[in-house]
From TrEMBL:
<dbReference type="GO" id="GO:0160016">
    <property type="term" value="F:CCACCA tRNA nucleotidyltransferase activity"/>
</dbReference>
<feature type="binding site">
    <location>
        <position position="171"/>
    </location>
    <ligand>
        <name>CTP</name>
    </ligand>
</feature>
<dbReference type="Pfam" id="PF21133">
    <property type="entry name" value="CAA_C"/>
</dbReference>
<keyword id="KW-0548">Nucleotidyltransferase</keyword>
<dbReference type="GO" id="GO:0000287">
    <property type="term" value="F:magnesium ion binding"/>
</dbReference>
<feature type="binding site">
    <location>
        <position position="56"/>
    </location>
    <ligand>
        <name>ATP</name>
    </ligand>
</feature>
<dbReference type="Pfam" id="PF09249">
    <property type="entry name" value="tRNA_NucTransf2"/>
</dbReference>
<feature type="binding site">
    <location>
        <position position="59"/>
    </location>
    <ligand>
        <name>CTP</name>
    </ligand>
</feature>
<feature type="binding site">
    <location>
        <position position="162"/>
    </location>
    <ligand>
        <name>CTP</name>
    </ligand>
</feature>
<dbReference type="GO" id="GO:0004810">
    <property type="term" value="F:CCA tRNA nucleotidyltransferase activity"/>
</dbReference>
<dbReference type="InterPro" id="IPR008229">
    <property type="entry name" value="CCA-adding_arc"/>
</dbReference>
<keyword id="KW-0819">tRNA processing</keyword>
<protein>
    <recommendedName>
        <fullName>CCA-adding enzyme</fullName>
        <ecNumber>2.7.7.72</ecNumber>
    </recommendedName>
</protein>
<feature type="domain" description="Polymerase nucleotidyl transferase">
    <location>
        <begin position="40"/>
        <end position="142"/>
    </location>
</feature>
<dbReference type="InterPro" id="IPR002934">
    <property type="entry name" value="Polymerase_NTP_transf_dom"/>
</dbReference>
<dbReference type="InterPro" id="IPR042090">
    <property type="entry name" value="CCA_tRNA_nucleotrans_2"/>
</dbReference>
<keyword id="KW-0808">Transferase</keyword>
Amino acid sequence: MTNSDLDAVVAAVRERIDPDEEERRALADAAAELESRVHDALADLPVDADVLQVGSTARGTWLSGDRDIDLFVRFPEDLTREELQEYGLAVGHAVLPDGHEEYAEHPYVKGDYDGFDVDLVPCYDVPTAPDIRSAVDRTPFHNAYLTERLDDDLAADVRVFKRFLKGIGAYGSDLRTEGFSGYLAELLILEYGGFEPLLRAAADWNPQVEFDPEDHGTRTFSDPLVVIDPTDPERNVAAVCSAENVARLQHYARSLLADPREDLFFLPDPPALDADGVRAHLERRGTTPVAIVFDAPDLVDDQLYPQLRKSLDGVADGLDRRGFDVFRTETFAADDAVLFVELSVAERPAVERHDGPPVHVRQHAEGFYGAYADGEDHYGPFLDGDRYVVERDREFTSATAFLTSESLFDVALGKHVESTLREDGYEVLVADEVAALADTFGSELGRYFDPRP
């Protein structure tokens, strides 16, 4: 592979993703009109405040087709939280009269203007990022830091890197994706000075990988990728990024460097499966899937998915400890939520072996022997080598019996997941019955049975 091969691919990708002059002009015009409306709305309030465009469209790192305009209204830091919300929403509704309220750490207004998706977010005008009173207060500092350092060439490489991350499925800092945020992508391009140097470095990363652009970090982190926020010495910008997505970037960086090709930037998802497709995979694999299906708790994804993953881990651990060997797991959600566990072993004998201590460990050995010596519901105690053993009745001989019992609630479940299962009930699908999930989750099952790095 020569540099020219990769350069040619990057040039072709840029032809597809760089906003053209007309698109840039339309966005600039819309942003200017919106800022003018904000100033008019602020004139009616008893406070001094200003407005700042932030995000990728403010820094020239947005991709063609992106239609997001993020406007932050900075209010004096001596306002109460209630006043911030009141004034912020008043400005938001004045600027976007058809908009609606959404909630991050505090409410903001989201709406449409001239075909653009607009977020109008109130924040505090604090002197430094460590002085923040709400999480969104950092964003203007991020914007200022990057605007000072990203020239046109670096901004172009950020766009290419973002498209690459999207293509390989590693873009997005939401807790469903656990990938790379736009801000993190920009910082990594700055750190390495471009897309190709970043690829070559990532191909050889040996996590934990740590960067501190301003050499001011005051905390240690255990995450696989650590990028200390240049505006906040106590924050890891990459905290959300999972080990799997760090590894995914490494895999595809090596693949692109070894064989530069445009398709890695636009990888399609595997085809969705229908019920027959699911059954065909199960017949080939010879495994037994079980799925707990229930009404998805009414939570935003960033609250829901951590609870689903915690619950999935708890269920998988409960099955493993009872001898039902877990092969692979996944969770997905729409109106329903699914905890999907594929088992190598779904049924077990009526008895299980229980090893006691070696006979020479007298106190423990005598206690074990005494506990089982007089019972009739087990075999033993007997000697196997130098230790006592009993064979006792197994509590659950099938995975289904465990999943439909009260013992399910002994495993670690997410708070809202547990309450939903208890109060609203759930369904357990076993073996071919999981094919019914294809009607709603055909795409997710397609990705599950056709996994890629």
